[in-house]
Amino acid sequence: MRTVRVISRLFPAFMLVTLLALGGALLYAEHAIRDFHENQTALELEAELQLLRDAVQAQLGDAATLRKTIADAGRRTDTRYTVIAADGRVLADSQEDPARLENHGTRPEVLLARSGATPARATRFSATRLETLLYTATLLGAEGGAQSILRAARPLKGLNASLRSLEWHMFAVAVLIFSLAAAASYWLARRLARPLQALRATAEQYAAGNLAAHPPSSDIEEIAGLAGAMQAMARQLNDRIQSLSRERAESEAVLASMVEGVLAVNNAEAVIRLNRAAAQLLGVTSGRMLGRDLREVVRHPVLQEFVLAALASDAPIEKDMLLYAPDERHVAAQGTALRDAAGMRIGALVVLNDVTRIRRLENIQREFVANVSHELKTPITAIQGFVETLLGSDAHKPEDVRRFLEIVNRHTERLNSIIEDLLALSRIEQEESGTLEREDADLSAIAASALQLCRARASGKDIALEHRCGGPMPARVNTRLIEQALVNLLDNAIKFSAPGRLVTIAGERQGDQWKLAVRDQGCGIAAEHLPRLFERFYRVDKARSRQSGGTGLGLAIVKHIAQAHGGAVAVESQPGAGSTFAISLPAAP
Ligand code: ADP
């Protein structure tokens, strides 16, 4: 729709009304003045007729006297007098020769006077005088039954001239009034338009987000009302926006703090929400993904398929999947339809649970149970075999019986040491959870006593043991456990060293840690075994380990003891040259 400014709409209307009012007033005034003037002239003429009437009536029979009287009366005034006989002949005329005048019997004022109308007036253009005249007529006494007429006439020329000058004056006043009205209407239109423009500017500010803007104040009630309503609207809008953004921030915070990954897509498969956990799981940056196509964001085909299935399904769906990037993760995904407040389906919501750790623990547990069973099975099978052999016959030679029983004894010892190690491990694991008993101790002294415990076994293999700790190494530790760890390491060092070699235990300070290193010159360990060396039951050479009475739990126990003290273990090894196992423990402050 075409729009116009208030001023363009109001101003012409005001002008038109002013113009019409002025024009009407002018016309009416002219009409009224003309009427008044004509009436006044007519009354004068009628008064003159009354004055002349008696004299004329007396002289009706004497044409010459009559003409003289009429001519005299005409000279004294600028009125034209005419006496008209009953048949219409002009008997006398103050300005014209009656003989030259035509019959006046049908003149309107004559007819009116004859019909008895008073006053008998007419205004018309005179063919004789060639101007507009006002005529009045009156009946005279009877003359042969019919009545003569005395008529007076005066030109309206003077009236017209004075009316014209009056009109000019009135026109000048009208122009003045018109100008004043124009100025007033212009001012009024501006006064109305200005607050409206200010309101518009405020509304534009609201639209631009500045809801604190104040609408202008106005003394026009409607505009003041509109301004008030606008301000109330802005306040409400502000409140609503604030509560919306607060709600949004809260739900963002909830989503962001969730451990579970949350991914929401709309029906067009565009991402509408992706929380931090989901972004981390999928290896993407959450901010830049919103509004983008699912396939651009989720590079995992299994998850893409799952999201599409969630979009297509009415019932909640679940699936365990393995994602390979950015790192390998086991994910339990749950998908449901996403519905708006009205219950309309607007997309799908997928919750991703990272179950990698749980799966890993489950695996470790499974492996552990399998390993334990396997470890126990070997000695039990052997024991069972030899016992059955012994029971099967009484004809065994006594030396065979003794040999079998020795083997059974060895396997029983092995079973015992496996079970002891397992119990030790489980104890340490429990203590790792915070209940470890500690005392102020000197690690150097613990190392010396561990060496002492291993001395007999070392000398049996002709292996020299060396203690190289500069001075006291104070720390808060569980002495029994640290000693056990060092014995395990020394035991292995002796076990895997050829006779005549040297095993040292050295202590040194590294920052706020003590490092105790057990070094041997034994067979060493190939690099590929090092990462798994501290796992339970892990052995480089299973047969050799078993033969030497190893359970495969020694290093696992060392690792757990170090961890229970807030420390760590490390290994360096060179096949053929020897190995160094080091335990780091926090030093006493
Ligand atoms: P085990 O009871 O079999 O010794 P451990 O957990 O103590 O079990 O050791 C695991 C494996 O690590 C051993 O079987 C052995 O192969 C290797 N190993 C440990 N210590 C040494 C060492 N000092 N030199 C060479 N290999 C070693």
Folded structure, characterized:
The protein is an alpha+beta fold and 589 residues long. 52% of the residues lie in helices and 21% in strands. It has 14 helices and 17 strands. The strands form four sheets. A five-stranded antiparallel sheet has the order 2-1-5-4-3, with helices on both faces. Strands 7-6-10-9-8 form a five-stranded antiparallel sheet, sandwiched between helices. Helix 11 (443-460) packs parallel to helix 12. The two termini are 86 Å apart. The mean pLDDT is 88. Adenosine-5'-diphosphate (ADP) is lined by residues 488, 492-493, 496, 520, 522-523, 525, 533, 538-541, 545, 550-556, 579.
| Nearest-integer average pLDDT | 88
Note the beta-strand portion: 15-25%
Given the structure, what is the number of helices?
A: 14
What is the CATH C level class of the largest domain, in words?
Alpha Beta
Number of domains: 4
* Principal-axes shape call: rod-shaped
In this structure, how is the largest beta sheet organized? 5 strands, antiparallel
Q: Would you identify the CATH architecture of the largest domain?
A: 2-Layer Sandwich
CATH topology name of the largest domain, in short, is Beta-Lactamase
Which structural category fits the helices and strands? alpha+beta
Provide the low-confidence segments as ranges.
none
| Rg over alpha carbons | 66 Å
How many angstroms does the end-to-end distance come to?
A: 86 Å
Spatial strand order of the main sheet? 2-1-5-4-3
Bound molecules: adenosine-5'-diphosphate
